[in-house]
């Protein structure tokens, strides 16, 4: 299943993650990258590209922590 619909929008359902591994060239070398989407249960989308799924999830966790901290300030 593709991560995006035919208009380029994420099809990630609420409360879940999607990821896709791809290769690209960086300074003449082929490198692996992971495109990662996570949609919160309330529908907010987090998206990133990193060198590994572990790094993507780490970034997601940091984003969720900041999001939760900011929610307490409102």
Number of helices: 1
Count of strand segments:
3
The count of domains is: 1
Rough shape? elongated
Taking pLDDT < 50 over at least 5 consecutive residues as the criterion, the unreliable ranges are none
**What fraction strand?**
35-45%
Measured distance between first and last alpha carbons:
38 Å
* Biggest sheet character: 3 strands, antiparallel
Instruction: Indicate the radius of gyration in whole angstroms.
Output: 14 Å
Rounded mean pLDDT is 88
Q: For the largest sheet, list the strands in their spatial order.
A: 1-2-3
| Structural category | alpha+beta
Polypeptide structure, described:
- The chain is α+β, with helices and mostly antiparallel strands and 74 residues long.
- The chain has one domain (16-71).
- It contains 1 helix and 3 strands, in the order βββα.
- It has one helix at residues 53-71, and strands spanning 16-26, 29-39, 45-50.
- Strands 1-2-3 form a 3-stranded antiparallel β-sheet, covered by helices on one side.
- A hairpin with a 2-residue loop joins strand 1 and strand 2 (29-39).
- The longest helix is centred in the last third of the chain and has 19 residues, at 53-71.
- The termini are far apart.
């Amino acid at each position: 299943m593709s991560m995006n619909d035919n208009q380029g929008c994420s099809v990630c359902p609420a409360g879940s993650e999607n990821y896709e591994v791809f290769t690209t060239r960086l300074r003449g070398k082929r490198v692996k990258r992971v495109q990662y989407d996570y949609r919160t249960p309330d529908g907010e989308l987090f998206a990133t590209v990193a060198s590994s799924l572990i790094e993507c999830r780490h970034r997601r966790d940091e984003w969720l922590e900041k999001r939760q901290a900011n929610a307490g300030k409102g």
